[in-house]
Each structure stands twice: as C-alpha cells, then as structure tokens.
Specification:
Subunit structure: Monomer.
GO molecular function: ligase activity; lipoyl(octanoyl) transferase activity
CATH class: Alpha Beta
Shape: globular
Radius of gyration: 18 Å
Largest sheet: 8 strands, mixed
Helix content: 40-55%
InterPro entries: aa-tRNA-synth_II/BPL/LPL (IPR045864), BPL_LPL_catalytic (IPR004143), LipM (IPR024898), Octanoyltrans_LipM/LipL (IPR050664)
Strand order of the largest sheet: 7-8-9-10-6-2-1-11
Order of helices and strands: EHEEHHEEEHEHEEEHHHHEHH
Pathway: Protein modification; protein lipoylation via endogenous pathway; protein N(6)-(lipoyl)lysine from octanoyl-[acyl-carrier-protein]
Number of strands: 11
CATH superfamily: Bira Bifunctional Protein, Domain 2
Number of helices: 11
Strand content: 25-35%
GO biological process, one term: protein lipoylation
Distance between the termini: 48 Å
Length: about 280
C-alpha cells in the first residue's frame, strides 16, 4: 500500500528561516509529531550557504558576499558552498528506521534522489545517476579541492548529458535523515566564483572551467524556459512516483512555529556562522 507523507511548500524566505525550518522539521519527525515530510522552498535574498564543516574566513570572501547583496548562512549538512538563487530547493526528512531507508548514507541518498530523477524525467530530461567507476574517480571524491559545490558529480548525483544538475547533502541526527539540495534553474558562474577565496586567478579560472564542464542548470539544457511553477509541479509528482508515496498538506501548530522562530536565532548568530 502506498504510504502518505507530509508535503509543504514554504515559498520564498530568508536564509535563517529556511535553515531553521529544516532543522525544526527534523525535530518534529524525531519526536513523532509529524510523518516523513518533503518540503520545497526558495530564497530571498539569494544566499550563499556553506557546509557545516567549512571554514568560513578561509574559504569565503565575506566582503564580496555582502557587496553583492547575498545572504550568508551555515547549513546543518556538510558539503561545500552553494549559491541559492534561481533554483528550487527541496528537503526530505524521514526516520532512519523507515523500512524504505537503507542504513548507509550513499544508498539512502540514492533512494531519496529517485524523487529528483523522476522529476527530471517528467520535465523531459534524460537524467541518470552518476556512479564513479574508476578507482581514480573514487579517490578524487575523497579529496575535494574546491570549496564550490556542484563541481564534481559524486555517488548517485543527478546527471544530464554528463553534467551534474542537482546537488544534495545529507545529515543524520536524532534518529532522522535530513537530505536537502538545490535543483538549478539558472546559474551565474561568475558571481558564484567571485565569492570564494582562491590562491590566485589562475586557480580560480581553472576551477571555473572545471565547473562549466561538470555542472549545468535546467535552462541551459532546455529549448524552452522552464519556470519555477513547472519545476515544482514536476518534482512534487517525481517524489511521489520515485518514493511510491502520496502527499497530504502539512500545517504547523503555533508551538511548532515558535520552535522555528527560536532556531532562527541560532542561524542568525555569528557563533554558528563562524563556528567559534
């Protein structure tokens, strides 16, 4: 029998709210207050999110981020820097004990990302999962040279025409899996690379070229402009098909909204951003 999960599209919010709600949903699932949930959202202002373990001052040109008017926030999940601008962001929050969820991060990643795969297919793309085949490719994954996400397809990344088209990250806390990621509608590569610190321009340009070779946005692949609405419709259906679930809407209670509010303060704080 098809299982029913919660679904919530929170639309456009600032980075602190976006990260606080993902963490709050993890807490609600952990406490059994809500069923597994899929959430869609966008960002206002456009924001650079950095991975939990990234060293902000060493890797990011903070002045450049402010100069460009972008938000800046640290995620709960690992991985590298992502510019959230013209994209649809998704999160999937599900108990680790869920019968459909494999024990390993990589395999769970594949299962959850099947929702993305089906969404891309509904938009007419010939998407598939990347599997690093050679020993050399697998070794490379262990030594990411760049602070920029999207520059290398790793295990089970979504690929179209050989290029990475969605980037995701996962964390497991309190018995719950949280996976969230970006589905790029368009990407401004110059803007993105300006915000990272490189040893020199030569290295920056080399990394930029590598990025262009390896990553792509939906509208670079499509003959017609694909709107955010079209993306939301396709990926909502894609998750239902890929995970064999149906959706029911999620409405948060006043006390749950209070919890989101208090978590926002954490993401706003320099303590968390700089991880002092």
């Amino acid at each position: 029998m098809t299982e029913t999960w919660h679904f919530i599209n929170t639309g456009s919010h600032d980075p602190y709210y976006n990260m606080a709600l993902d963490e709050a949903l993890l807490n609600f699932v952990s406490r059994g207050e809500i069923d597994p949930v899929v959430r869609f959202y966008t960002w206002s202002p456009p924001t650079l999110s950095i991975g939990y373990f990234q060293r902000l001052e060493k890797e990011i040109d903070i002045n450049k981020v402010q100069e460009k008017g972008y938000g800046l926030v640290r995620r709960q999940t690992g991985g590298r820097g992502v510019l959230h601008d013209k994209e649809l962001t998704y999160s999937v929050i599900v108990p680790e004990s869920h019968p459909a969820m494999p024990k390993t991060v990589t395999e769970a990643y594949r299962i959850i990302s099947t929702g993305l795969l089906e969404g891309f297919k509904l938009l007419g793309f010939d998407a598939y999962f990347s599997i690093p085949r050679s020993k050399e490719e697998r070794e490379k994954l262990k030594q990411p040279r760049s602070s920029v996400c999207f520059d290398a397809p790793s295990w089970y990344e979504l690929v179209v025409e050989g290029k990475k088209i969605a980037g995701s990250a996962q964390t497991r806390q309190k018995g719950v899996i949280l996976q969230h990621g970006s589905i790029l509608q368009d990407v401004d590569i110059d803007d993105l690379f300006d915000m990272f610190i490189f040893k020199n321009d030569r290295l920056k340009n080399k990394m930029k070229e590598a990025f262009v070779e390896k990553a792509i946005a939906i509208n670079d692949l499509s003959d017609t402009h694909i709107t955010l609405d079209e993306m939301e419709t396709a990926f909502k259906e894609g998750f239902q098909k890929g995970l064999d679930i149906t959706f029911k809407p999620l409405t948060l209670t006043p006390s749950q909204l209070e919890e989101v509010k208090s978590l926002e303060e954490k993401y706003r704080s320099d303590e968390f951003l700089y991880r002092k």
